[in-house]
Structure formats: structure tokens, C-alpha cells
Amino acid sequence: MPTIGVKRDLLFKLLGKTYTDEEFQKLCFEFGLELDEVTTEKQMITKEQGEDSQLTSGASEEIIYRIDIPANRYDLLCLEGLVLGLLVFQKKLPFPLFSAVKPSEGDLQKLIIKPDTAKIRPFAVAAILRNIQFDADRYNSFIDLQDKLHQNICRKRTLVAIGTHDFDTIKGPFFYDAKSPKEIKFKPLNQDKEYTGEELMELYSTHAQLKHYLHIIKDSPVYPVITDSNGVVVSLPPIINGDHTKIKLTTKNVFIECTATDLTKAKIVLDTLVCMFSQHCSNKHTVEYCEVINPNGTSVLYPGLRYRTEVVSAKKINKKNRY
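User: That's the sequence. What structure does it adopt?
Assistant: C-alpha cells below.
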């Protein structure tokens, strides 16, 4: 069962009510969650790393709620989804209708999948969030949700890898291909020089987080890579994005791509991301389609954002709840 940490005061502000710890614990229980721990950033670091003045010197004393989330509720793995779920549950907010639209100006952005991707990671989906407004808390939540999804439904990036990019720094159409590691050369996120695919394996072999994902592609004769129409490397999934497309607080338009070995999981991940963060767009709960063109020439618009209606009798449900 995954656990998320949210700032208590920010959570209460968004919920429009201040709770005692006991009151919020009760609300969580009624909703099907569990308030696991009331702590601070400093206490969490101390617990994980031990007493170290260098590690804790900049840590906040702000109260953090650590909340256990059911394994199948990917929409609750961030502050945005948690607040939405609780407000709808309390009937303080109607459930929003999410929609995908074509661009008001210009053509659909395209992601073209090349045949060689079948050798390593055959599927990809994509979408664009337009006119989004980030602040520090929203940005951190956006990054944290990707990490939570990677660790859960994405099975540590083996099934799905997420790439998010400043759309205004690149130009479509985009190409998803698989190339020899020696052919791939770019400046990875937060680095100051270019590396080949081979050199990246060495660079990140001791990296605290990224070293755990290298095995997914390291021994393959080809590595997956996404480029824009100018040849700019957008990402080397499932390892690292390019520094060129790094998202900042000033980013207004976000290009999201998910590469995968499981297309169904990729669709769920993309839908989750765009639904949670489209509420920060100027046109709330709306996301822009991308057209994904498969190697066989067929094309699909993503995200799906499909709704369905289920009719189930209370008698049948009650039978399911008997132990």
C-alpha cells in the first residue's frame, strides 16, 4: 500500500476547513484511507537518515500528514487527487467532467512510433497540458505524483516510464525510435555536457535513484529515444529526460509522453496525470489530444478519458461484502 505525505496546512486550506488530527483521521477512515503518521519533514529525514545536521539543516518543521492509499487508487497519490476525492465524497463539490480537445489553433501534435521500438519498448502515448500555472507546491506535487506512479502501477518503470517536458522548448512532430547507444548523444537533465547512451550507463551506475532503472535497457543493442522535429533529444526512457526540455515554475505548456511495454497501463498513467493537473490549467479539466501514429500507419488520439455507466443491484453488492 503506497503512502503519500502532504502538508497539513495546505491540505486544510484546499479542503476549506481546519480539522483536528482526530477529526481528519475519522474522515480518512470513512473515505477508506488511513492517516498513518503525523510528522514533519525534519523528523522524516532524521528517521530515515539518522541525526545529521547537514541533512536536516534546511528541513522544515511544517506538519506533514502521511496517508496510506489503496493500491488501486492511483488518482489519490497526490494532493490534487486527495483533495478532489474528499470534497466529492463530502458532497462539497460535484465530480468534474474531464475532456480532451483538439487544439484551437494549428494542427494536432503527432508522436510517430518507429518500427525498431518493437525490439525493446513498443508502445507510447502522449498529451499536452495547455496554459498551466505552477507554483512551488504544485510543481513538487507534479514531480512527486510521477515518482509515485513509477513505483506502483509502472512497476519501477519496467511497464511504463513517464516523461514531462516544457513544450515551448521543442517542436513537433515527435519521433519515438530505438537506436544504438553510440548513436544517441544529448545533455541529460541537470547535467552540463552531452553523453552518449553508453556513457550514461556509466554516469548513472552509482546514482542513488537512477541506477535502479539501468538494467531495463542496459544490455539491449538498441535504446529507446524520443526526439523532436529538429533532432533535439526529449528523453531516453525509462532513464532520464533531456535537460533542454526541463520544466520550471514558469513553464506554461507541458508535453507528456509515456513509453511502455504495457499499453493499458500507459493509458491509465496518462489519464491519471492529465486529470490531476488539468485543474491547474486556464481551461480547467481539459487536456489537448496528441495523435500517436503506429508503425503500421494506424493512428490513435490520446488521452482516452473514457466514461462508462454501470448498473449493479444493491442485492448483488451486499452479497459481495459478506465474508
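The radius of gyration is 21 Å.
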